[in-house]
Automatic annotation (TrEMBL):
The keyword Transit peptide does not apply. This is ABC transporter ATP-binding protein. One of its GO terms (molecular function) is ATP binding. Keywords: ATP-binding, Cell inner membrane, Cell membrane, Membrane, Nucleotide-binding, Translocase, Transport. SMART domains: AAA (SM00382). Pfam families: ABC_tran. It comes from Phytohabitans kaempferiae. It is a peripheral membrane protein. Belongs to the ABC transporter superfamily.
Amino acid sequence: MALLSLRDVRVHDGVSRRDLVHGVSFELSPGKAVGIVGESGSGKTLTCRAVLGILPEHFTVAGGAIEIDGRDTAGLSGKEWTALRGATVSAVFQDPASYLNPSLKVGTQIAEVVRVKKGLARRAARRRAVELLEAVRLRDPERVCQQYPHELSGGMLQRVLIAAAIAADPRVLIADEATTALDVTVQAEILDLLADLRERTGLALVVVSHDLAVVAQLCDEVLVLRAGETVEQGPVERILYDPRHEYTKLLIEEHEQYGLDRFKELDHVA
Ligand SMILES: Nc1ncnc2c1ncn2[C@@H]1O[C@H](COP(=O)(O)OP(=O)(O)OP(=O)(O)O)[C@@H](O)[C@H]1O
């Protein structure tokens, strides 16, 4: 059964009285990855926020259905969403520093997530925090636990955020422009880490990026969004090698300069 299923989802803005997402559909099974690409403002983040139950004020899911692990999310209470978030669907976004408390040590913050979401006692939560930092391949996790966010690099902070996001053993992880702010080498390491988590733990991924190369590296299926509408959707190889929509062709051309060419040569897609 699909872990996550979106059927014709519409996101409506009550202020402008417009639909900003016009019917997005996809299904995600364990260990699979779906990518959402499109330029800025195309509705990628709103789609993710709808899945996490954190749409901004005045925005609603006005049509279609979102099912998480077989459960229709329409009409979930705030409390039910809180229970689902982190534990079933979790997310990492761009700019990890803004999601961490600057005045608390990294280990304390991760242990807190574990304590609240998994109900572990303080000491066990602490041990688990170290294990999680190890799982995201941070060297010397004991030391990182004792550090404050400002002492870590952007790539390290994104690993910390991933550790926090997987702390409650979610089944689906949404990575929304999670590597966009990082330099190319660090970006590659984080993508590799996500691929590894997917393979080892069966974590399903929703990968959001304006960069097709990122999505191509991780995903089985791609949705191309433009102005809130899906213009093209299909297996990643098909979209890359045989794009049918003009907009997809444009995206591919634009992003070749960022390494899609190199990616194609390596033939990771096969
Ligand atoms: N909080 C908000 N208030 C008003 N409009 C919003 C809000 N969030 C998003 N929008 C609008 O909804 C549309 C889709 O935005 P969304 O953030 O989903 O795009 P995106 O594809 O994720 O873009 P980006 O890559 O820039 O994050 C845009 O027109 C945006 O201006």
